[in-house]
Write a structure and sequence with these properties.
TIM Barrel, 3-stranded parallel sheet, 10% strand
C-alpha cells in the first residue's frame, strides 16, 4: 500500500477567523502551528521515516520564521504544496479573478521562497468550477481537494446546529464529491468529481469502507485508536489528512475548538496509527504517490496491450 500523509498548515488565525473576531492585520510573530506544531510534526515523522506533503497558506509565507522551518521540512524530503493565499471560507463562490488571485498568490510566494509547488488543496475540500483550469495553467501535477464522502458536509453542518455557534459563513464541502472515485484518477476539467482527461491528476482524501467517514485527524482522534484502525480501508493508495493544529496545545494558545481532546491524547492515538501503517505500506509524498500510481496504471495498460 502507498501511504500519503498530508498536513494542512492552517494557522491559528484561520480558526479564529472561523470562530469570529479575527483582526485582519498581518501576523507579526510566528503562528503556533509553525513554531510548535510543525516542529513536533518533523520530529514525529522523522521517527517513523515519513515523507509528507504540507499544504501551506500564502499569508503564512510572509514571515521569515515560518519560511525557516519550512526550508528545514523541504531539506528532509517533505513536499510543500498550495493551500490558497488566505484560506477563504467562500472558496466555492469566488469570482474567476479572485479565484486566480488566491491560487496564484500562494503559488508565487512559494516560488519566491525557493519552493516548487506541484499540488493544491482547496479550503475545507470545497470545489470551484474554474479552479482546475487555473491549476493547469500553472503547470500543477495534481489536485487533492476531493473528499469522496457524503457524510462530511452533513456532519459539519450538523455540528454547527448542535453547537448553536455563530460561526462565520463557510462553505462546507460539496455533496457531489461523494460521487467521486476513491483512488487517484484523471478528472473532468469542469466536473472534478468525475473521471475525464484533465492534464493533472486528482488525489482524493481516503474514506472508510462503509460510511465513507473521512480519514482525517479530527475524525480519527474522535474515534480513538481501536475504532480508527478499523476504519482504514484495504486499498492500494491511502491519503490521510492531518492539520498543523492537531499538534498544538490549543488551550495554551487560547483557542477553544469544539470536539478537540488534549494534545497528549491526540499524539498517543496518532503514534498508534502511524506504527500500524508503517507495517502495512510505504510512506510517500503526494507528488510521489501520483507519479507511482499513474506509472503503475500505464504499465498495467501496456501489459494488457501486449
Amino acid at each position: 500500500m502507498l501511504i500519503s500523509i498530508q498536513v494542512d498548515l492552517d494557522g491559528v488565525w484561520t480558526y479564529r477567523d472561523y470562530l469570529g473576531g479575527l483582526s485582519r492585520e498581518p501576523e507579526r510573530s510566528p503562528d503556533p502551528v509553525y513554531s510548535q506544531g510543525l516542529k513536533s510534526i518533523l520530529e514525529l515523522f522523522s521517527r517513523f521515516g515519513i515523507k509528507a506533503t504540507f499544504f501551506c497558506v500564502g499569508r503564512d509565507l510572509k514571515l521569515s520564521e515560518n519560511i525557516r522551518i519550512l526550508k528545514q521540512a523541504a531539506a528532509r524530503g517533505h513536499e510543500l504544496a498550495n493551500h490558497t493565499l488566505t484560506h477563504p471560507g467562500n472558496f466555492t463562490r469566488l469570482s474567476r479573478e479572485r479565484l486566480y488571485a488566491q491560487i496564484n498568490g500562494c503559488h508565487q510566494l512559494l516560488i519566491d521562497n525557493g519552493f516548487q509547488p506541484r499540488g493544491f488543496r482547496s479550503p475545507a475540500y470545497n470545489l470551484n468550477p474554474g479552479y482546475l483550469k487555473v491549476l493547469e495553467s500553472l503547470g500543477y501535477d495534481y489536485d487533492a481537494s476531493i473528499l469522496p464522502s457524503f457524510s462530511y458536509p452533513l456532519l459539519l453542518k450538523t455540528a454547527h446546529v448542535i453547537l448553536k455557534k455563530s460561526f462565520k459563513t463557510i462553505d462546507t464541502g460539496s455533496l457531489l464529491s461523494g460521487l467521486a472515485c476513491q483512488v487517484p484518477y484523471r478528472p473532468d476539467i469542469n466536473r472534478p468529481w468525475k473521471r475525464g482527461a484533465a492534464g493533472l491528476a486528482e488525489l482524493p482524501v481516503s474514506v472508510s469502507r462503509f460510511l465513507r467517514i473521512p480519514l482525517t485527524g479530527t475524525m480519527l482522534f474522535f474515534c480513538g485508536p481501536g475504532l480508527a484502525l478499523s476504519l482504514i480501508p484495504r486499498v492500494e493508495v491511502m491519503c490521510l489528512v492531518l492539520h498543523g493544529i492537531d499538534f498544538v496545545d490549543t488551550q495554551a494558545c487560547g483557542l477553544k475548538l469544539p470536539f478537540v481532546m488534549p494534545l497528549k491524547t491526540r499524539m498517543r492515538i496518532l503514534e498508534t496509527l502511524l506504527s500500524r501503517l508503517k507495517d502495512t505500506g510505504s510512506f510517500l509524498t503526494a507528488g510521489e504517490t501520483v507519479e507511482n500510481t499513474l506509472r503503475f496504471k500505464t504499465e498495467k495498460c501496456n501489459q494488457k496491450k501486449l
